[in-house]
């Protein structure tokens, strides 16, 4: 098969692992910088151009699109889809998961566990917004934040009100969520591929930190999932429509709750913690799911 990995950095661990896994299984694998793609949008012969040439018709693509380039990145994925290329995650599913508010509303509609959450752009009574999620301490999140950036823990009512007022002064949209104290600064990252949890790790926040992101100094270790946690991760991935994703779960007193569904999960932490060939599993899933692209004759223009 001919596979393209849409990644801005070919030297990233996740990108390299996917390339190596694809080559190991005898596929041709190209890495394409999403932001350097440009599109020829026509009804007869849609194409993607790159560095002055028309890209070939790939059998499959693996989008590795960062949150900061979601709009253009998903447009490129849609263009490949128009060309008959199989995408492990469809553009609409990526967009759905990147919208934090929309994703939480979808999870809520399906009855999937999640922290009590409030959303406001300009509430008349900030104290009521805080009260509705259970009162302080609360977690305040910018809708556009990633990797723990734009996430603040407010210990008291006054602190929460001040932070919310500050964010609103910047015309920012925010989420206010209950703080799951019993999680102890730890969450569980479940890697879901093809409707199955293929690997899971526990991420523990660094001392003095409540955010467990590995980018913020958190540590990773093996974890055994309960049936409820496994089902929650699978249901969350299905709700988002993602074939490959990371589902972040907290262990609360009222069962597992989903914090986020990530359509481009990093592989380094989870492969290191579990010693599993997750990249190989992703390529294997593509082999089972993608069909040869016979839309048009291949070849560079």
Automatic annotation (TrEMBL):
Mn(2+) 1 binds at residues 248, 260. Its EC number is 6.3.2.-. GO terms for biological process: SOS response; translation. Pfam families: RimK (PF08443), Rimk_N (PF18030). GO terms for molecular function: ATP binding; metal ion binding; ribosomal S6-glutamic acid ligase activity. The keyword Ribosomal protein applies. Signal peptide: none annotated. Binds 2 magnesium or manganese ions per subunit. It comes from the Bacteria. Mn(2+) 2 binds at residues 260, 262. ATP binds at residues 141, 178-179, 187, 211-213. Residues 104-287 form the ATP-grasp domain. This is Probable alpha-L-glutamate ligase.
């Amino acid at each position: 098969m001919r596979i393209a990995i849409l990644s801005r950095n070919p030297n990233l661990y996740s990108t390299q692992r996917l390339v190596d896994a694809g080559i190991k299984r005898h596929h041709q694998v190209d890495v394409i910088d999403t932001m350097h793609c440009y599109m020829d949008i026509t009804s007869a012969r849609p194409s993607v151009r790159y560095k002055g040439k028309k890209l070939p018709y790939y059998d499959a693509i693996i989008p590795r699109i960062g949150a900061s380039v979601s709009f253009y990145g998903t447009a490129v994925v849609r263009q490949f889809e128009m060309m008959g290329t199989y995408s492990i995650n469809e553009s609409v599913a990526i967009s759905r998961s990147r919208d934090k508010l929309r994703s939480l509303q979808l999870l809520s509609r399906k009855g999937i566990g999640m922290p009590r959450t409030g959303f406001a752009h300009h509430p008349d009574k900030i104290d009521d917004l805080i009260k509705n999620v259970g009162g302080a301490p609360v977690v305040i999140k910018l809708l556009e934040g990633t990797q723990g950036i734009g996430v603040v823990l407010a210990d008291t009512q006054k602190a929460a009100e001040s932070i919310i007022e500050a964010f609103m002064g910047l015309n920012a949209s925010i989420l206010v969520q209950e703080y799951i104290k019993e999680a102890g600064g730890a969450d569980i990252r479940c890697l879901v591929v093809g409707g199955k949890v293929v690997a899971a790790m526990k991420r523990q926040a660094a001392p003095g930190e409540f955010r467990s992101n590995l980018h913020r100094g958190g540590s990773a270790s093996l974890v055994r999932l309960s049936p409820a946690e496994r089902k929650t991760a699978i249901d969350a991935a299905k709700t988002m429509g993602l074939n490959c994703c990371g589902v972040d779960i907290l262990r609360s007193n009222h069962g597992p709750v989903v914090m986020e569904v990530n359509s481009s999960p990093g592989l380094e932490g989870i492969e290191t913690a579990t010693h599993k060939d997750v990249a190989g599993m992703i390529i294997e899933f593509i082999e089972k799911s993608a069909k040869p692209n016979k839309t048009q004759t291949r070849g560079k223009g």
